[in-house]
Design goal:
GO molecular function: tRNA (guanine(46)-N7)-methyltransferase activity
Strand order of the largest sheet: 1-4-3-2-5-6-8-7
Oligomer: single chain
Protein name: tRNA (guanine-N(7)-)-methyltransferase
CATH architecture: 3-Layer(aba) Sandwich
Order of helices and strands: HEHEHEHEHEHEHEHEEE
Number of strands: 10
Catalytic activity: guanosine(46) in tRNA + S-adenosyl-L-methionine = N(7)-methylguanosine(46) in tRNA + S-adenosyl-L-homocysteine
CATH class: Alpha Beta
EC number: 2.1.1.33
Bound molecules: S-adenosylmethionine
Keywords: Methyltransferase, S-adenosyl-L-methionine, Transferase, tRNA processing
Number of domains: 1
């Protein structure tokens, strides 16, 4: 499947939440230092205001039990494979290619891309409860059936809920850039994170990352290119199993207004899946 054309942001979703209490402390870094994957940042996110409006609370109470779940904590972070991967077939009620979106914010891209690809199931992971509530409201209004939500750290989700070679795609759109040098270790996309993502992708599966921060863009390109199981692809000239056409979020619009260039990177996991499910080397 190849995807072309421009998508547009939908009103009412897409605000990247305003950070509160954004100064991290070094003591928060200890837990993941010795993960099976090497250094995984424990807190790539910031604490935020998370109060819900009455309407959001009503929608949350009604839909979360069916569409949402809380991720386990990082206490078992040293384990390389999940004890009991999530039963996504039961959760979605069907068997379909699965995409994990990390840090969906309030879900503009999640909703638009899921609507564009009703044959693909999308799990949106986010720490920020109000962002998930905004996405739930948008799902409710649009009647979209192929999105599920997980609240928690995406690294816990990847480690403990997602089995090896089970994802057709991973999306990381505008991860927090942590621009100060002393905070770079908080950046989500580190070599160990990319190795974990590569492990969870099916052969032929896609990692799509986007950022408006030049320094982080360079870092993302370096760690992605250094992962031996991934090969960088030009989405304009390569058939991919999922869309890489993103809508423009409010967050991205602000970056454009500030004169920042947006960089998109797409990697494909080496190997291919035949129709019978056998894997072949490239
Ligand atoms: C800069 S915002 C971008 C939001 C959205 N992707 C967009 O393009 O508008 C980054 C988001 O990633 C979330 N985030 C950062 N690290 C995360 C992690 N380890 N697990 C889950 N969410 C995370 C933050 O809470 C925040 O909402």
């Amino acid at each position: 499947m190849r995807h072309h054309g421009q998508m547009h942001a939908r009103p009412g979703v897409g605000v990247c939440p305003v950070p509160m209490n954004s100064e991290p402390t070094d003591s928060e870094h200890s837990n993941r230092e010795h993960s099976a994957w090497g250094y995984l940042p424990p807190t790539s996110f910031r604490a935020r205001r998370s109060a819900l409006s009455n309407a959001q609370r009503e929608t949350w109470d009604r839909l979360w039990p069916r569409l949402g779940m809380q991720a386990p904590s990082h206490t078992q972070a040293a384990e390389p494979t999940p004890r009991e991967p999530l039963d996504t077939k039961t959760w979605f009620g069907r068997e379909a290619p699965l995409v994990l979106e990390i840090g969906c914010g309030s879900g503009t891209s999640t909703l638009a891309m899921a609507q564009d690809e009703p044959n693909i199931d999308v799990i949106a992971v986010e720490i920020y409860r109000r962002g998930l509530a905004q996405l739930l409201c948008a799902i409710d209004s649009a009647g979209v059936e192929n999105i599920r939500l997980i609240r928690g750290n995406a690294l816990d989700v990847l480690q403990h809920l997602i089995g090896p070679e089970s994802l057709t795609g991973v999306r990381v759109f505008f991860p927090d850039p942590w621009p100060k040098a002393r905070h770079h270790k908080r950046r989500l996309l580190q070599p160990a994170t990319v190795a974990l993502i590569a492990d969870r992708l099916l052969p032929g599966g896609v990692l799509h990352a986007a950022t408006d921060h030049p320094g982080y863009a360079e870092h993302i390109a370096t760690v992605g290119d250094a992962e031996p199981r991934l090969v960088r692809v030009d989405p304009g000239s390569e058939a991919l199993p999922i869309s890489v056409v993103r809508p423009t979020t409010k967050y991205e619009s602000k970056a454009h207004e500030a004169g920042s260039a947006v960089a998109d990177y797409v990697w494909k996991k080496r190997g291919q899946v035949t129709q019978s499910g056998d894997q072949n080397a490239p």
